[in-house]
Amino acid sequence: MSALKKFLIIFCALLIVFLTACQSLDIQASPEDLMRPPAVDPEQNEIERVLRENVGNVRLKYPKRGNYRSAFITYDVDGDGQNEAIVFFASDIQDSRVRICILDKPNGEWELMQHLGGEGTEVQEVNFQKFTDDYVNIVVGYESGDQLALNDTIVVYSYRNDSPANAPYLRDIYREEYKQIITLRRQERNYDELLVLNNSWVTDSDGAGMRSAAAVLVRYDEQEKALGKVSECNLSASSVDDSKIYIQELDKDNFLAYIDHVVDKNSIFTESLVIKENSVRKAIRPESSQRDDFFYTKRSAAFPTSDIDGDGKYEVPFTPDKSAAEIITDPLSRISDGWLVYVLWQELFWDDSVANKYVPKYRTVYNEPGQYFFIIPDGWLDFVSVRTSREGREMIFSTKNTRSNSKDLLSVFAMEKGNETVSVVPEGMELIAGTDGFDYYADALATYPVEHTMESTGKVIKLDVVSVPEARELLMPKSKITGP
Ligand SMILES: [Ca+2]
Ligand SMILES: [Ca+2]
Questions:
Q1: Distance between alpha carbon 171 and the CA centroid of its chain, in Å?
Q2: Are 92 and 113 within 8 A, CB to CB?
């Protein structure tokens, strides 16, 4: 071995030792390092110093949710190209009410400009929105702190610092009771509007009180030169505390809002609203044949409003029970296997008339043990039934003839990953989809159109079969359905 080769071997060996040592130094952090708080922004330190110098040793309040959760929120509210700082605090233990304060740099150094009493005891969320051309507004959701309160409060602030002649000032320009808030931006206007859901207490004609709820459209009014309520619509729910809202663009300037209201811990129903021009109102009108949202959309809480086919429009699921099934004449709704749920996905047909209503889009069978939906092809309606096997995770579709001449058409199967008891893929099945929890398989049990004799008339029809590639399009794992 030459001297050069020896040198190279030793050099490489040393290099490896050196690199390994570097790597392990990188990875190993001492417990002290891990316990050290993250480095604090010096600007935040300065803001905090100025704040405490002016208002004393206060307790800072952090927004509980939303995009801005820092105790020191910096944003260019007045549009002068330089950020202001918004801070929330409570002054002492006795007085837990939140105050909002704004700091700015009028002369290059942070100064506390103003602080105002907020509303309630905690800050839920903070947003910056543009309701007009002029400037950005600060929208703050305050938690009331009162267990018995029906609502919390949203307060909209403006901050102006645009004239040397006037002192900068922060003021509240709008407040509204709220439980849920959604921002709407109409392309035509290019400004924000708010859809506010809140609870209320109404008294009926007998003088009895009952809980109610409403949706309020809040917008800047050009005539009034102020932010205000432009429209209000009573809702069918008695509370919007846990309602979920899904917004869909109807056209460039109008929206549909689907609200999943909680009925009890197991069930929900959907109310649909249209937000058009200066109004918010129910999409399905009282004079419509489908005026009862509850009746047409009540279902298990396991099925939220979703865009199941990803076309940008929401579908509202419905799991009709026996009495509903008699009205929504749908033979599949009588599926009574404990593993399976018949789910009818409806689309809201909206044409701005009283004819607005839900129309069936997909008829599906939901397989609970395998967590998947299977869309029933239109040609199968009335003629096909389904049974389960393999701990409920396999569905076998067959013609509805009497037992002696019933023919199997298709089998779909969900194999749970890592499950020991069902670990062998049934023979002949092909993999068609997969998720973190399951692999999905299908097998076409009939490969050419099947003759089916209708029991009532004796008429013979030819039923289309579903191939494995077609089954791939019809099976939807629940975890892959896009929610809000
Ligand atoms: Ca600014
Ligand atoms: Ca859709």
A1: 32
A2: no
- CA dihedral 195→199→204→208, nearest 10 degrees, is 180
Contact 443, 475 (CB under 8 A): no
pTM of the model: 0.82
Q: By the 8 A CB rule, do 241 and 341 touch?
A: no
Nearest-angstrom CA–CA distance, 114 and 269: 46
Pair 106, 160: CB distance under 8 Å = no
What are the φ and ψ backbone dihedral angles of 12, each rounded to 5 degrees?
-60, -40
Nearest-CA neighbor of 368 among 438, 417, 426, 421?
438
Average pLDDT by consecutive 10-residue portion of the chain (484 residues)? Answer: 56 51 44 54 90 91 94 91 94 83 92 91 94 88 91 93 74 93 85 94 87 94 88 94 94 91 94 93 84 86 92 91 50 65 90 84 92 92 84 88 75 86 78 94 90 78 91 94 64
Question: 349 C-alpha to center of ligand 2: Å?
Answer: 12
Cα of 359 vs centre of ligand 2, distance in Å, is 13
What's the full length of the chain, in residues? Answer: 484
Residues in the 5 Å CB sphere of ion ligand 1? 76, 78, 80, 82, 84
* Residues near ion ligand 2 (Cβ under 5 Å): 307, 309, 311, 313
Ligand 2 center–CA 414 separation, angstroms: 24
Query: Cβ distance 155 to 142 under 8 Å?
Result: yes
3-class DSSP state of 322: helix
Distance CA 447, CA 445 (A): 7
